[in-house]
Amino acid sequence: MKSIELTRRVDELIGKQLNSWLVIRAITNSVAECECECGNVNQVRIYDLLKNKSRKCTSCADKTRGRRTHNMSKTRLYKVWKDVKARCCNLNNSSYKDYGGRGISICNEWIVNFESFFEWSLLKGYNELLTIDRIDVNGNYEPSNCRWATRTVQNNNTRRNFYIDYQNEKYTLSLLARKFGFKPLVVYKRLQRGWSIEDALTLKSGERRNNEIIGNM
């Protein structure tokens, strides 16, 4: 009966905050994966959570005893790390449905260790003008599938992008339109009206197409 009760409790606790712990998922019927407010992730016994025997991670406990921590909890990079974990693991996060909800996770190397994420970021050229980007938008957050990129590069790598094959190359509509000096919306509307890709990318306002003078779109 105790095992059944704990299993029921795990399901009820997922996504809830207990002291400094956010319950992420069940590991077994008596152990849950939890994230501390500081960002550390650990496995915690359900009994200890419910009985307040585990209120925070050991790093936070050490901090209260005056021991040193990484002292980066107020930096932008730390916030990025926290946000990635939240959208992959926290059912209550507004972006969860687009990440964790469709199977995207964060690798164990990063989820339990901010320092590992920090070191990878510096090696990959992190600066505060860049955003974290998954190379395969359906893949996980892990070193082999992530990079630091400009916002333009990241926007060109979303699931919503419209791809076009042009002269044996594959482009996003956004990149191809700007390559020819057009706004992406103009090219998109032309293609929706049945224009060939060549006409959509080359004809300027005021020129003729099929005896039609092209106006601004």
Describe the overall structure.
By secondary structure, this protein is α+β, with helices and mostly antiparallel strands. It folds into three domains: 2-64, no CATH class; 76-155, no CATH class; 163-213, no CATH class. The chain is 36% helix and 18% strand. It has ten helices and ten strands. It has helices at 2-13, 46-50, 58-64, 76-89, 108-111, 114-123, 151-155, 173-179, 184-192, 197-202; strands at 17-18, 21-26, 31-36, 41-45, 131-134, 146-149, 163-166, 169-172, 208-209, 212-213. A four-stranded antiparallel sheet has the order 1-2-3-4. Strand 7 and strand 8 (169-172) form a beta hairpin. Residues 1-7 have low confidence and may be disordered.
Which labels suit this protein?
single chain; alpha+beta; 3 domains; four-stranded antiparallel sheet; two-stranded antiparallel sheet; 10 helices; elongated
Main beta sheet strand tally, sense and closure: 4 strands, antiparallel
Q: What's the domain count?
A: 3
Number of strands: 10
Mean pLDDT: 77
What's the helix and strand layout?
Blueprint: H1 2-13, E1 17-18, E2 21-26, E3 31-36, E4 41-45, H2 46-50, H3 58-64, H4 76-89, H5 108-111, H6 114-123, E5 131-134, E6 146-149, H7 151-155, E7 163-166, E8 169-172, H8 173-179, H9 184-192, H10 197-202, E9 208-209, E10 212-213
Antiparallel strand pairs: 1-2, 2-3, 3-4, 5-6, 7-8, 9-10
Helix pairs in contact: 8-9
Brief description of this entry?
The protein has 217 residues and is α+β, with helices and mostly antiparallel strands. The protein has 10 helices and 10 strands. The chain is 36% helix and 18% strand.
